[in-house]
Specification:
The chain has 216 residues and is an alpha/beta fold. The chain is globular. Helix 7 (154-164) crosses helix 10. It has 2 domains: 2-136, Response regulator (Rossmann fold, 3-Layer(aba) Sandwich); 143-209, Winged helix-like DNA-binding domain superfamily/Winged helix DNA-binding domain (Arc Repressor Mutant, subunit A, Orthogonal Bundle), CATH 1.10.10.10. It has 10 helices and 6 strands. It has a 6-stranded parallel β-sheet, with helices on both faces. Strand 4, helix 4 (86-94) and strand 5 form a beta-alpha-beta unit. The longest helix is centred in the C-terminal third of the chain and has 15 residues, at 180-194.
Length: 216
C-alpha cells in the first residue's frame, strides 16, 4: 500500500504501524497529494491511505484522481484525518474513498479499514458512520436518487439496510443467518443493480431513498 501525509512523523508512524500488521506492506510514502497520485499510478497498490490536509493537491483531490467517477480503473483509497468534520467526510466519499478514519482510530481499526478496502469492502470510523450517512442524505444532491436496474429482492433489502448501518459481511451473515458467500453475492448484486462502485455508495443510496431512517 501507499501512505501519504505531509507530516513526516505521522507518515512514518502510520507506515510502521501498518508494516507490523499481517498481510500489509507499505511499498511507498508521499508527503503531498501530487506525489501520492504519481506513485499510486505507477505502483498500482492494493490500497492507498491519504491524509486530507496536504500541500498542493489535498487528499480529497488525490482520491478523486485515483478513485473518482471518471476513473476507469479506480484504486482503493482510505482517507484519514485529525478533523472530524462532516464536509471532509462528504467530500471524501464523493471523491470515491472506500474508508474514512480519524487518526486516533488505533492500529486495529486502521488495519481493518485497509483489509476491507483491499477486499472491495468499506469501513468508516464508527464515531461518524451513522451521523455522516444520515446527514449525507439530507444535504446530498437535489436530483432524485437513481432507480435500480431491477427491483431488489426482500433479502437484498435486508442486506442493504445492514450495509447502511455499517455492518461487515461477517456481521450481516450472523444477523441474517446466511453464509458469508451468500452475503457477498447479495452485496455484489446490489452494487450491480444500483450501479454503485462500492459499499459506501450502496449505503448512501439506502439513506437517500429512506430505506434507513433516523433512529432506525
Amino acid at each position: 500500500m501507499v501512505v501519504a501525509d505531509d507530516q513526516e512523523i505521522v507518515r512514518t508512524g502510520l507506515a510502521m504501524i501498518l508494516d507490523a500488521q499481517p498481510g500489509i506492506e507499505v511499498v511507498a510514502q508521499a508527503a503531498d497529494g501530487q506525489r501520492a497520485v504519481e506513485v499510486a499510478r505507477r505502483l498500482r497498490p492494493d490500497v492507498c491511505l491519504f491524509d486530507i490536509r496536504m500541500p498542493g493537491i489535498d487528499g480529497i483531490e488525490a482520491t478523486r484522481r485515483l478513485a473518482g467517477p471518471a476513473v476507469a480503473d479506480p484504486l482503493a483509497v482510505v482517507v484519514i484525518t485529525t478533523f472530524d468534520l462532516d464536509e471532509y467526510v462528504y467530500a471524501a466519499l464523493r471523491a470515491g474513498a472506500r474508508g474514512f478514519l480519524l487518526k486516533d482510530a488505533g492500529s486495529v481499526l486502521l488495519s481493518q479499514a485497509v483489509h476491507a478496502a483491499a477486499s472491495g469492502d468499506a469501513l468508516i470510523a464508527p464515531s461518524v458512520t451513522t451521523r455522516l450517512l444520515r446527514a449525507f442524505a439530507d444535504t446530498g444532491p437535489t436530483a432524485p436518487p437513481r432507480q435500480p436496474v431491477e427491483p431488489l429482492t426482500d433479502r437484498e433489502e435486508q442486506v442493504l439496510a445492514a450495509v447502511a448501518r455499517g455492518r461487515t459481511n461477517s456481521e450481516i451473515a450472523g444477523e441474517l443467518h446466511i453464509s458469508l458467500s451468500t452475503v457477498k453475492t447479495h452485496v455484489a448484486s446490489l452494487m450491480t443493480k444500483l450501479a454503485a462502485r462500492n459499499r459506501v455508495e450502496v449505503a448512501i443510496w439506502a439513506y437517500e431513498t429512506h430505506r434507513v431512517r433516523r433512529g432506525g
